[in-house]
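Minutes, project huddle
Topic: does the predicted pose make sense with pyridoxal-5'-phosphate bound?
PN asked that the exact inputs be recorded in the minutes so nobody has to dig through chat later. Recorded below.
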Amino acid sequence: MSFANQSRRQFASDNYAGVCPEAWATMTEANAGHEVGYGDDTWTAKAANLIRDVFETKCEVFFVFNGTSANSLSLASLCQPYHSILCHELAHVETAECGAPEFFSNGSKVLLLGGANGKINPAEIDRAVHKRDDIHYPKPRVLSLTQATEVGTVYSLAEVRELAGVARRFGLRVHMDGARFANAIVALNVAPADLTWRAGVDVLCFGMTKNGIAVGEAVVFFDRELAREFDYRCKQGGQLASKMRFLSAPWVGMLKDGAWLRHAQHSNAMAKRLETGLRGIPSVQIAYPVESNGVFVRIPTAVEKRMHERGWKFYTGVVTPDESRLMCSWDTTAGDVDAFVQDLRELTGANS
Ligand SMILES: *Cc1c(COP(=O)(O)O)cnc(C)c1O
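Predicted holo structure (tokens), as shared on screen:
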């Protein structure tokens, strides 16, 4: 067994990174002494209030362990089992949650929509809703948007408004998978309220794990009526943390003075630097506009293998066929980016 590359920073996933200092500090603070369990503690109240400040509204907030449970439990709360959930064909809820949305909703079907660059084409909503209107088709109930998308692009404010507007017209609720919501916010430089409830989003799965905390995502209901009995759903789904303060305290560290935005700004900037470096290599192609913290590239297969031999870890063909996904994290350095690009330049012969 070799541990030679164990602590090297990688581009395989933003989940490879550790915990940022701001989140770690409030975890340590929360560890001093006793606190009430199951969410009735001061840290959880404080974290929920900070989220209400961020969104400028009295939303309902629940902390769960991960993004899969945030998505599937919130979607289940919007649907009856005979309903359907519309999402992009690359959406995490379809491709990477092992059917959890269907499982937790007791059978609501996920229906797939197309669209370039990982973004739903609004005409596809119309197509899915009007494909059938009889009792034999699972009734469309929710539109799910991923912001930032699975391929590192970002829906503009106008795009979110348009999609949510179409959804409303067809009587659909709007769910947003915000595993990388912070990256989208800094990319667009818009107010979180504008990009969510003011645009028509009913519920946001607000991720922070990929942006520097250890564990714990927030389910944010802007339509508070939809949050009714969600606490029971969380408990039944195994998502009520007994020592809840360790899920919520890191949020206080991230939100109280803007660390969440600084870290996202940084990982986005590293992705831009990576893009610039990769554009200088003739045999490497960038697959999508680089708008958040991910860069998708096509690298010759032989070169990809040799990059792995040099100790670089990244996934190819997992999110999209034949493309390698390179993710930047809160702790990615310019040196990491330059070293990766330099190795790729050497192996592709770009230097000779
Ligand atoms: C990572 C991710 C999630 C959450 O995944 P978990 O591993 O369950 O925390 C959800 N949606 C998207 C788009 C993601 O990239």
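Observations noted during the meeting:
- Residues 90 and 320 are 8 Å apart (CA to CA).
- The mean pLDDT is 97.
No decisions taken; revisit at the next huddle.
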